[in-house]
Amino acid sequence: MKFLTFALIIVFVNNLSASCPSDPAEWCLNIENAKSCNIVKQCWENVWSIKRRQSDQIEYTGLVNLTLYYETLCPDCKNFMSSQILNAFLTVKDIMNLTLVPYGNAKETWRNETKLWQFECQHGSDECWGNLLHTCVIYSKPKTDDHLPFILCMEGNNVDDIQTSATKCGLKYNVSIDEMEKCMFSRLGNGLQHEMAAKTEILNPPHKYVPWITLNGEHTDEIQKQAENNLVDLICKTYKGTKKPEACNQK
């Protein structure tokens, strides 16, 4: 593969699993191959990022607005983000505005004695910590290109506890957890998390589960089903512009 140097291939080869294609030209061909070869980060940095920069030269109008409501330790959310969101961002990100809302099925209570919101999360305090971390990362790095790789890294980690996962992914994607905790344990972070709660609670129809998808502000059972089955196809069909990414022309 022309984007990968011989030196990189030597580094990768020790991490290959049995399901990894034997031909290096296929390692970064798609998400599934990259994951089976344990080189998603390397493909992102050395192959897919180059393709994205090349596609940035094309101007797209009338972008599709996709919003994902999720919580950090939800297994279905982690699976959806590691597959559908990742694939869509790498192939059709130029025709969509992606917004992440990390709150999900949490509950909030206003504490008048502290003048702060208190949060309870479906999967416990670790999830509240993760939701708040993602909220502060999104605030600190508002561009999707800057915060999404870190968030997808965390959501794709099913081995480590959430704080260990955050530390590892922070080192990979230049996110200082110490700096993020300054936001998390402040009135700023508390207010930012309340904003995520408010965005979730005003959904119409109200969300019944997570991940919960809205497309151009609309949620239907059909939109949800299509997003879970093939998000790239849904984005391509919804986009009304004349110029489309290569992925939209593939069957």
From TrEMBL:
Domain Saposin A-type: 13-53
Family annotation (Pfam families): GILT, SapA
Keywords per UniProt: Disulfide bond, Glycoprotein, Secreted, Signal
Example of a GO MF term: oxidoreductase activity, acting on a sulfur group of donors, disulfide as acceptor
Places the protein is found: Secreted
GO cellular component: extracellular region
Record flagged with keyword Glycoprotein: yes
Predominant location: secreted
Record's signal peptide: 1-18
UniProt superkingdom: Eukaryota
Record family assignment: Belongs to the GILT family.
Protein name as catalogued: Gamma-interferon-inducible lysosomal thiol reductase-like
